[in-house]
Design a protein that fits this description.
By secondary structure, the chain is an alpha+beta fold. The protein contains 9 helices and 9 strands. β4 and β5 form a beta hairpin.
Length: about 290
C-alpha cells in the first residue's frame, strides 16, 4: 500500500470528506467520526433482527447491506463511490474528523496514552513513524495484527477490527511491525486496564440448570445491551453503567456470563469512546451496587 506521506496539510485545513477522499486514494479504509466515536448504526441495523444480518455491534468483516456507515470500524472503506455516496452524505455533514481501519490497510497503531507510555516506547520499541496525540503519541508500523487494549498501562494496540483517528501523516520512516509489539498481544493486560473476570457463581445443590444459560436467551440479552450502548448519543458514561447494571442484575448471580459476553459489552462501550479503564470501573461499580 502506498503510504499517505504526501498529505502534508494539517487535518483542520480540509473538510472531513475531502480528507477521507484523499486518504482513500492512498489505500486507507476510512470512516466518519462524530467526535472521537463513530456514528451509531442506522435504524435498519439496530432493528431486531438487524437488516444487515449482523449483531448491532458487528465484529466480523464484511459490507453492510444498508450502505450507511454502520458498525464502526467495519464500515471503513477506500472506495470513493461509497465515501461520496448519498448514504454517507448526512454523516459527513455532521462529522468532526476522520478515522481509518489500520488492519484493513496492513498497519498497526501502538496508541501511547500518556507520557510514561511514550517514554517506555522510546526505550523499548523500534523507531517508526510517530504522530502526536492530545495526550501522547501514535506509533505506526507496517503489518497487521489483532487489536488488544491495555497491553500495558496507557498502551493499546489498534490494528484489525479497530479504528484510529486520522491525526496527520506524522514524522519519521515507517518500519515493519516488530516481534516486540506482536508479543504484547499475548501478555497479561495490566491490572489497571484489564477486563473483569467472568462471573462464575455455581448453582446450588439440587437446583436445575439456570434457564438463562439457554444460548438464544442470553445472546439476545447481550445483543440488546450492545444496541443500547451503540445507540446512545449523549450521557455515554451513564448509559454504559446503567446497561452493565441491567445485565448483571439479570445474569450476574447465576454463572451465565462468560469472558466473551463481557468482552462484547466492553467492545460496544469502547466503540462509543469509553476507555478500557472506564469500562472496568463501570463494571466494578455495577457489581458493587448489586452486592456481587
Amino acid at each position: 500500500m502506498t503510504q499517505p506521506a504526501a498529505i502534508r496539510r494539517d487535518p483542520p485545513t480540509l473538510s472531513p470528506l475531502r480528507t477521507a477522499v484523499e486518504l482513500a486514494a492512498f489505500g486507507l479504509p476510512v470512516l466518519p467520526l462524530r467526535g472521537k466515536v463513530p456514528f451509531g448504526n442506522c435504524p435498519a441495523c439496530t432493528g431486531q433482527p438487524p437488516a444487515c444480518g449482523g449483531r448491532p455491534n458487528m465484529r466480523t468483516p464484511g459490507p453492510c447491506r444498508c450502505l450507511a456507515p454502520c458498525h464502526a470500524w467495519a464500515a471503513a472503506t477506500s472506495d470513493p463511490s461509497v465515501i461520496a455516496s448519498p448514504a454517507w452524505a448526512s454523516a459527513w455533514r455532521e462529522a468532526v474528523t476522520v478515522a481509518y481501519h489500520p488492519g484493513g490497510a496492513g498497519l498497526t497503531v501502538v496508541d501511547l496514552d500518556n507520557a510514561a507510555a511514550v517514554a517506555w516506547a522510546r526505550e523499548t520499541l523500534p523507531a517508526t513513524r510517530t504522530i502526536a496525540t492530545t495526550r501522547g503519541e501514535h506509533w505506526i508500523y507496517q503489518g497487521a495484527m489483532r487489536s488488544v487494549n491495555g497491553v500495558r498501562d496507557g498502551v493499546d494496540i489498534k490494528s484489525t477490527m479497530a479504528y484510529a483517528r486520522w491525526l496527520g501523516p506524522g514524522t519519521g520512516t515507517m518500519t515493519s511491525l516488530p516481534d516486540t509489539v506482536r508479543a504484547l498481544a499475548v501478555k497479561e493486560p495490566s491490572t489497571v486496564r484489564s477486563a473483569p473476570q467472568a462471573i462464575t457463581v455455581p448453582a446450588r445443590a439440587g437446583e436445575e440448570m439456570c434457564p438463562h444459560r439457554a444460548p438464544a436467551y442470553l445472546d439476545r440479552g447481550i445483543a440488546m445491551a450492545e444496541q443500547r450502548i451503540t445507540e446512545a448519543t449523549s450521557a455515554i458514561h451513564a448509559t454504559v453503567y446503567r446497561t452493565f447494571l441491567a445485565v448483571l442484575s439479570t445474569h450476574g448471580r447465576c454463572g451465565c456470563l462468560t469472558e466473551a459476553h463481557v468482552a462484547r459489552l466492553f467492545t460496544a462501550a469502547q466503540a462509543k469512546g469509553e476507555s478500557p479503564r472506564h469500562c472496568t470501573d463501570a463494571w466494578t461499580n455495577a457489581r458493587t451496587t448489586l452486592g456481587l
